[in-house]
Amino acid sequence: MNTTELKKSISTIIDTSSSQELMLQSICDLLKQEINYYDWVGFYFKNGDKNELKLAQFAGEPTEHTIIPFGKGICGQVAVSNENFVVQDVASQDNYISCGWKVKSEIVIPIFVNNENIGQIDIDSHTVNPFTKDDEKLLEFICEKVASTL
Prior knowledge:
This protein is an alpha+beta fold. The chain has four helices and six strands, in the order ααβββαβββα.
């Protein structure tokens, strides 16, 4: 993974996209295409005043988890904790919402606007233990760049 090149590509997408939806979809598509162990990439955002997340743009197989209550699953836990959550083996998590038998690991990074957690990027992998600090740093960079547009 060449994070320098990916960051340049992400910055270009953010600077040139004509809409938020197109920007988010392009980011999802790029990450899924360029990082072979990113099997599903999506953005969830707080659903209005409700204590739940709503799926926005994504790349990968469709999911039935379009609404996730705060506290439920990895994404719901990040909505409450406001902290990155890296799960190298989803089988080790009691509060995991299965998105399919192929998913073996997940990383979720929150998006903050004015110190408020307004959403997150969620990555599922079909590989156990794939994520490194480089993944976390890249996704944090993406969340900061996306936040600057909201």
